[in-house]
Structures
1.
Amino acid sequence: MFKRIGFLFALMLLASCVSSRAAPTLTPPPTLPAATGIPVTPKPNTPRASAEPTATVETLPTPENVADMFRAASAELKNYKPPENDPKSLYDTLAKGIGEFLAATANGDVSLEGQPALEQLRDALGQLENLPENAQAQVTAIHTGDDQGGSRDVVFVAMQGVMGLPIIGVERLGASYEPLPPISFGGIESAEARYFYPAQLDARDVTGDGMRELIYVLEIPGASGTTNDLTIARWLAEEKQAKTIFHAALINWAGESDYQIETTADASSIKLTFPWFGAFDHKLLAHPNATQTWEYDDAQDKFVPVSQTIQEPQTPRQALNAGEYALSNGDWNGALTQYERAWNDANLAKEDFTDSQADPAAFGKFRQAMVLYLLGRTDDAQKLLSDAQKSGDALASVAKTYAKNASGQNGALRGWIAMANAGDLYQLIYDDKAGNLDFPFEAREIYLQGGIVAAYLQTRNDADKNPEQVWQALAALGFKPLQRTAADLNGDGVNEFLVVTQEGGTSPNQSEALWFIYKRENAWRVRALDIADTVQFEGELLPLPNSQQRALKLKLPEAYTPNETALTWDGTRLVWLDAKSLEPRPDNWPSVGGGVLEDDF
């Protein structure tokens, strides 16, 4: 039985090689509207601190003693064994040599951006002794201002093909050069953290303030595909450090994930293109592409998500997944359209699930009936429900349980709850005995127990104002989560809800599912949070300093390090926090293409 793999892969050592990926140039495919984000306020176009250099900057000859400048670095390269070796000595000797080289070749009176000395440096670094095969250098610069001593700039160097070596930074003031601390989004403190290759390096103004930002990609090799870690950072001249204003893990696990930066007159947008995974999916199946658009927001000084589009479905399963996504977003009419396509669109191509008898079209009928019940259209729902009960054994059993309990007041919710309480579908699927609900179906997504709370809130205006009444009403219908809580996490007057349920009904391995239910764009949405097989709510909600936000602490199994975390909601995205300091964790940026739903999180 296949299980969908999460974000984390097993890493394996590869040879010293690197691939630079070009940004996609194709027009995005026909798409389904999915979500729009918050408005952004880009910075106005302001004058540069200093004029860019022109072709009149003299090209000075490359020094004859280049080998001497980098002799210590070449010696370090000879003995460097990544990722076990700390790259600090190699970094320091390269930074020193870079400063000496530029002192002899660059014009210190004008901006270093675009000077011929940068290309000369790139060529010189590419000829160092003891470099790994196919290794090469990338060089860029950011002009940060002018001083009495000359132009102030920062030079950045990426040594492609040298594992574990972070982006090298050297600050220049006129003719003097000072090495800066290593630049790497994830740090380089451990061998595991150093398991990357520098892949791409650039600098351009993407915020509209007249100063370049640093753009770099670190390529992380893996057993099932590479991950390209994209970072865009603002250089803080006074602090002498890079502040991340955008980061994304582009996972090439089930197909290529890529990025494109589109620049307008006063700002830029970032488009992430990646294979989109739905509720019932797997790496080896075909996926529609999704495109996320991020734009710079001046008030937050970072890029924020503003939209996501998903390619039109090509198979019944993909249409079913589009319906599940709409249902999870509280878009019931959109869900009806996609569910009907799953069983009634002759243009959709059938998929081969090898030995699995999975029937996405039949399940689409059942799910369409469930949504029709929620909308009060019981007559339309009953024929579809009858058809579903005539399907294969697994779906027939689920549909019969639902139909038996779906009559009368609150029938739609009562049927949904009874279906989820009925049995151990998780084990049937795990043992490949689930018939037409076999691979790639998943019990958690079939039951979608967090959706019960979202549906209740969707049909009752302002019910979130009294969470205890919500829990009592659902308990009367048979809904008994293992844990539950509700609170206004972001201080906007609307409560968010979290529940823990048994995954797939009454699974023998006692695996649990954590659900987050929240309101966005006038609809109640639900997401399953994949953080651990079991999770425990810890204590009261905690206020965050200098904010109206509150956070919930979560205890994970002892095998996890750390085994505590915390979360809050900022109104647009879920934010994970360090459990002790309640500071945002550095991994709150998106990861795409890795088999998890990445939109509001």
2.
Amino acid sequence: MSSSRSTRRALLAGAAATVAAGVAGCLDRSTEGPADDEDDEPIVEVAEATASEGETDPEAWADVEEVRLEAYVGGWVGVEPDLIDRIENPTLVLVEGREYEITWENGDAVKHNLALHDGDGEVVGEYATGVVEDLGATETLEFVARPEIETYICEHQPAIQYGAVDVVDG
């Protein structure tokens, strides 16, 4: 009888360890991708490429004043300019002191907003839009590019719906 109990305890301990490892993996909020990025597929189905394929040459962004994005739970998807078309969570390159507009459209009828954050994760100035949850609804954020802006983020899905902002000298 003790052999049966030992086997059952070993089986339960193994199952518990497997469940614990699975849960720990789900709770990992690391933003680092897998070691082999060559086979990365976009999280958002409508995206065709990951952010690593976006254009970040400041000269290519010199004439850009307006940015259009689509908002999905899985991430932002670039629409305009062509530099970011169908890019998931694209890096935005902005010129310090220049005025910009970012217009985003709700693509999945889930709550979204867009806020510009600094390196401490705080909203820069009052650079944030209202919350929209209606499919197809849009919001536009007008702002002046400041060097402290480092990311754009949806404050409702901050772990997966964010992108980098590179503010360059004018």
3.
Amino acid sequence: MHERDFPACPYQAEDGFNDRNRFPHGHLFVGEIENGKRYPFGVYTKEEADDRFAAKETEANLEALAQSVSTSLNDLTDIVNSKASEAEAEAIRARLDALEYVDIKINSFIATPSLCEIGSTQTISLSWSLNKSATSQTIDGVPVTGSSKQFANVSSSKTYTLNVADGKTSATKTASVAFANRIYYGAASDLTEVTQLGNVLSNDKKRTFTVDARAGEYIVYAIPARLGAVTFFVGGFEGGFEEPVEQVLTNASGYQEPYNVYRSTNANLGETTVEVREG
């Protein structure tokens, strides 16, 4: 087989032919620069394409914003040109107020102290909170301001009534102060020192208590006679106490009052839990 002779390439090295592109001058590849512009002119790198996209997006956002502002201004102009009369404006305001209106309420109304010893004289502090501002406030019919009020020289049980209003609705709440004497209970060998026993300030004669009655000691329970009779239960069984003895006892405030003093039938009962019920 004989080698064939091929015609010489029409483009020689001196005419621009080279091993890189096999094309003469005048033939550009994608991505090459000519006269400061990339070839072909519609092709960009990823970074350039991202930048161009961001620029276009910004332009679109600015255009949309401009249109929105223009529309808002037109709406405002229409409102100004067609403003309601004063009467219509008042009616609109009244309807809006009705939609937003909330009834006035008293969140809390507290008396401090709320329980006092009979025979003492106290200054009672009343405090309250509302869900909104009031146009008027009274306590027992007397106008008050702010959110607190003090009453001096109080010596008996009393209920205070707070009334508030906002011009449309009103609300009422009460707070009470009670005066009570002490109920005495514990273990003792006799009934001569009843006021030295443990005690609680209360008008409720019913309770459960635990005492430790040792040798020669009885369980003692003393209540104001005005509270009425009681019954005793120990271990779930009724009884175990003698009939009451009446004594006039004086409290720390100097107040004297008749008491019914109960004593357990037996002494030396040790630690015992006693339930006192209505008689």
